[in-house]
Amino acid sequence: MLSRRGREQHSQCLVEGVRLIEDAMRAGEQPALIFCVPAAHESPRAEALLASAPAAGVPIYEISPAIFATLSDTVSSQGVVAVMPVPALSPVAGADLVLVLDQIRDPGNLGTILRSAEAAGVGQVLLTRGCADPWGPKVLRAGMGAHFRLPLQVDLEWPAIAGLLAGRPLWAADAHGELAYDRVDWTQPAALVIGGETEGISAEASALTRGKIYIPMRGGAESLNAAMAATVVLFEVARQRRHSKGAE
User: Fold this and answer.
1) What is the Cα 42 distance to its own chain's centre?
2) Helices 226-247 & 107-120, crossing angle to 10 degrees?
3) Alpha-carbon distance 244 to 211, whole Å?
4) What distance in Å separates the CA atoms of residue 130 and residue 101, rounded to the nearest whole number?
């Protein structure tokens, strides 16, 4: 579970920190086991988590700080790491907003996008081959538990993505797009593709898009980073849909 290959082979990942473990458990995932250092018992919240684990059949292994450091990916750890199954969530029934991430390689950006996607009501996220591992520790931390509630499909090629879009128009976020992002009618079933900051969307993505949208900006900034751009567009989608339902 310390490498992407290990996570893929075992369909498990390391989840570090009390809050993230709690989020995963609230989403219905059960740890296979938990590692902790002796000092973790000094935190009331960590102690409550550790005390509840045996009753749920979750074994706890208390290890030395030196060994724990080989599992931890944080500078100031809470001293608790769980081995969790990678969930296989089905797309939300009737979901009409699909987010496609095209070679998002920065772990922090990827995790932040997933956090925003869940908050904005995205029904499914499709990740192309070349994206960062969504189950890596940095992505998990930035996602703040969204991974365990948001259906993800990873390592996809564009022919497979085209089939999964099921006729939804695909809009691409592009700093040089021709249509402002808030001029799209997002109340209808749709898909949005966000590309990596360096290369943007791929040629395969461009070939499938209905059009390219941009975020109007003042000042000298040429563009927003991928996570910020995705958040701005996704919450415009959520705003339009919320207002549409309120008008009915």
Assistant:
1) 31
2) 0
3) 23
4) 10
Q: What are 84-111's pLDDT values in tens digits?
A: 999 888 776 667 899 999 999 999 999 9
Q: Please report which residue ranges of the chain form alpha helices under DSSP H.
A: 4-10, 18-26, 44-52, 65-69, 107-120, 137-143, 158-164, 203-208, 226-247
Q: What is the pTM of this model?
A: 0.91
Angle separating helix axes 44-52 and 18-26, nearest 10 degrees: 40
Cα end-to-end distance, the chain, whole Å:
48
- What token pair was written down for 224? 């927003």
pLDDT digits (tens, 9 = 90+) for 160-211: 999 998 789 999 999 899 999 999 999 999 999 999 888 889 999 999 999 9
CB neighbours (10 Å) of residue 151?
17
Two tokens at 210? 């209905």
